[in-house]
Amino acid sequence: MNIRRLKDSISSRLMLAATAFACLLFFFMLVGLYYRASPILSTEPIFDLLFSKEWSPNAGKFGFFPFIMGTLWVTGLAIVIAVPISLLSSIYLSEYADSSLRAAANPLIDLLAGIPSVVYGLWGVIAVVPFIRNIFAPALGVETIGGYSILAGGIVLSIMVFPIIISITSEVMRSVSQDLREVSLSVGATKWQTIKHVVLRKAKPGIFAAIILGFSRAFGETMAVLMVVGNVYRVPSSIFDPAYPLPALIANTFGEMMSIPLYDSAIMLAALLLLIVVMIFNILARMVLIKIEKGVI
Amino acid sequence: MELRRVEEFIFRVLMILSLGIVMISLLTVIGVILWKGLPAINIDMLTKTAEGGYYLGTGGGILNAIIGSLYLALGGTVLAFFLSIGIAFYLQKEYSGGTKLADLTRLSLDILWGTPSIVYGAFGFTILMLLNMRASLLGGIIVLTLLELPIMTRAMEEVIKTVPSELKEVSFSLGATRLETVVKVVAKQALPGLMTGVLIAFGRGIGDAASVLFTAGYTDRIPTSLFDATASLPLAIFFQLGTPLPQIQQKAYASAVILLMIILAINITARVLSRKYTKYIIK
To answer: Which residues of chain B have pLDDT under 50?
Structure first.
């Protein structure tokens, strides 16, 4: 075997090793987190852990319910704000806007996606939290804890979700064939009717996938939310309440958790929960997007 | 006016409003950070490490965080590059194209791409425990490598896919091996695009706080070995903002401006590179 072939075969094995690593990395994460979380799973059934409201690590009580509700409130609010705004924006960008507006908007949206989450958090602390404390909450006559609330978390998070939903939706709408639009226009439909009845209907699965991906991003976002959401441990009942989402719990307790038995195991369980939820949503969304790409939908 | 025209008009107004909200929110994020941060930046901030007490001293600057962030992100990006380029090539037709392994790897990378960085942080922490290591520069680099890997690989793969297969066929027909074809033809053709992928991953790495929170630690000093704890800009923002002292909060604003500048520079360079790339594509 000559040296060139030898090089080729060695390099291809190295590449295979790297590929196998990437393929298994996710599996490693799942197993690693499960392994560290297993002590607490063996003390109590998972159902009790997830739906118990009592969280006192010193007494060995680990109830995740308030954190799960906190995550759902913040994520839900972010999605409620982000979905209509980003859908309308992407319809405008892909159907109505002329190319110069598109050329100006796309780099800005890319930039929005690239800004680190802690910078969004800082912006939330400087701008959003005081706005809620000084203007919004007094105007509605509600009490907040200095403005740190689910509302603040939802606003910051929705801006972080914009670029994800906008870029995926625009791509999906661009993949709807031009013929369909022309047929609809030729039978006398207005542009908006065409969009509403033809383009959006055709793009529905893809838009759904975009929303799911946005949701899964919001679900696991840590720093920006942690900085503005108040981190008070209780089950929230309105958007002006503070919350304590799961990612914030993980980030906040990492320093102290090694000193209390089972505490680290509970935190790893929280990470495992996040990983599994995000995995399920990602697989669902990707399956839809891959089908669209292959032209099945 | 017909009802359907009215409806169209209303929706057009809503769309423009929405796009306005998206654009204005971006501009306010950048505007507010610059407005608060620019006055906080001075030469001391950039040339001195933190002074006056462990962790959150009021004196000095944030040089430790700037250097720490660069070490972390550069280390992570270099490691991720060597893994990613191999994977991205291996996913092509002449290696594993069309096989189950390729599909499975793509799915795995997509899931990893969407995995929250705090989960990477928790996983990185379990690796450190396993290796009996403390939070250190090396720990941070490992976890950033994992975080950047899916982003870089997917970006590179997209670029490599656009290289026309005729180029490869010509190279093969001249008797080149796969490695020679991939390195001398494909990589050369795709170079600007590959660099864009590297830059995007670098930007993600340098901005991430949650993953390095438990794996890189935080310190006032510039690390001198791979096993020292290291500060980073995102964590500098987070910790310094959390203090009640205005002098320290000033440092958080300055850190945010520097981080934002780095991200902007990366964004612009990536844009220029990808424009260059599309210009040289043989259609």
So the answer is: none
